[in-house]
Amino acid sequence: MKDIVIKAKRILEGIEVGFFDTGKEWSSENYADYYRYFSHPNKEVRKYSLLVFAAAVGNWWMKSAFVFYSHADIIYYSDLKEHLDKIYFIEDYFQAFLANKVAIKEEFPLLYNAIVVDLIKLDNENQFENVYPSVDPQLFFQLRETWIKSNIDTSYEYNFNDLLREVGLPTFLKD
């Protein structure tokens, strides 16, 4: 599990300055199936796995990186076929987030809110069904139900220093 945290830290390097917005180090050397660790018994592993997901969603929202593909995308992108073991599949991450949403929200409420707000913005900009037409739309429906029930205002602006403190990371900017 130490390897997962080390890889995640490499992806997240500079997060205290660049938030979830700036491009991260998504190289194959840092790849792991982070979604598998959203409910890991070790808090450090859970935390870093969720932070990687938040960074991937934030990078997508800010257009600084696009790391998620659907399982069907490998048909259309021949270069993906060579790296099947190093692809961040959107279905896996969304399903794991949904399966663990209650625990995530309880343990890391600010991180949960940050992820949900970025997902709402992404879906409002271009519905997930349009971005991933091959993915079962029921998955996106479940996501939308989750954030409706979360009752999060889409204009929600979190203090990134507070989020960093919540997950036990050092801050950089003054409050």
Q: What's the structural domain tally?
A: 1
Q: Judging from the principal axes of the Cα atoms, what is the shape? A: globular
What's the end-to-end separation, in Å?
A: 33 Å
Give helix and strand order, one letter per element, not per position: HHHEHHEHHHHHH
Beta-strand level of the residues, as a percent range?
under 5%
Number of helices: 11
What's the total number of strands? 2
**How many strands, which pairing sense, and closed or not: the largest β-sheet?**
2 strands, parallel
Layout of strands and helices, then pairs:
Layout: H1 2-12, H2 15-18, H3 43-62, E1 68-69, H4 73-76, H5 78-81, E2 88-89, H6 90-99, H7 101-107, H8 109-125, H9 128-131, H10 137-150, H11 160-166
Parallel strand pairs: 1-2
Helix pairs in contact: 1-3, 3-8, 6-10, 7-8
